[in-house]
Amino acid sequence: MVATVALALLGVTAVLVVHRLVRGPHALDRIVAVEILVTTVVAGAAVAVAVWDYTSAVLVLLVLALLGFIGSVTAARLAEEREDMR
Amino acid sequence: MNGLVQTALEAATAVLLLCGAVFCLLGGVGLVRFPDTVTRLQAAAKAQNLGLLLILIGAALRVPLPYAGLLLLIAVFQLITVPVLGQIVGRIAYRTGAVERHTLTVDELAERLAPPDAPDAGESGGGRGRGT
After folding, report:
1. Whether the predicted pLDDT of B129 surpasses 50
2. Less packed terminus of chain A by CB within 10 Å, N or C?
3. What is the ipTM of this complex?
4. Which of A28, A51, A58 sits opposite B93 (nearest CB)?
């Protein structure tokens, strides 16, 4: 029950974030949206870890959180160099 | 007694997971509704990560101790990396013109970025803030 409600809320969050990812309008908006999407995935997997004792996913979450950060920073620096990237 | 502790932990986990999911949803709503990049960054960097932290703490209460440590490590990484990303994206948004400056009430960075011989720029301005 708790898992269903929490995952449903996170699913709605993901839909809203994808809406912003598609709409833009600036590249930085999309970069922020991707970062939030990764955060939402980590949150959803953490719910699965808590409810179904799916502990083997914990290391995946650790890697995903760090890779999301590195990717977002790299993309943001690219958007700074190429100001026409919109 | 042990069963009571177990029940209390499960109840705490349920409350934390639901609160975290609600905060994540609020972050998503803010990301869609707010008018420009910097305000969206606000929703992203605060509401969303509070939600993630609550969910991670809730999960850490349920799993065995080593995994709980790893979940808290994820939370610490998140607390370190999100301000860095917010700083970088905010600065790039300002410098590439994604921020509409006439909507800002206070714009301290403009004084720092102004050339030193401009009439309203203090001596403390020039140089700072131009770095990478």
Report:
1. no
2. N
3. 0.86
4. A28
Helix (H) or strand (E) holding B54: helix B47-62
CB contact under 8 A, B37 and A13: no
Task: Tell me how long chain A is.
Answer: 86
DSSP secondary structure, B29-52, as one string: HHHHHSSSHHHHHHHHHTHHHHHH
Contact A86, A25 (CB under 8 A): yes
* A6 interaction partners in chain B (CB closer than 8 Å): 17-18, 20-21, 55
Task: Report d(CA A42, CA A39) in Å as an integer.
Answer: 5
With CA atoms as reference, report the closest residue to B125 among B114, B112, B115: B112
Q: pLDDT tens digits, residue range B83-121?
A: 888 888 888 888 777 777 777 777 777 777 776 655 554
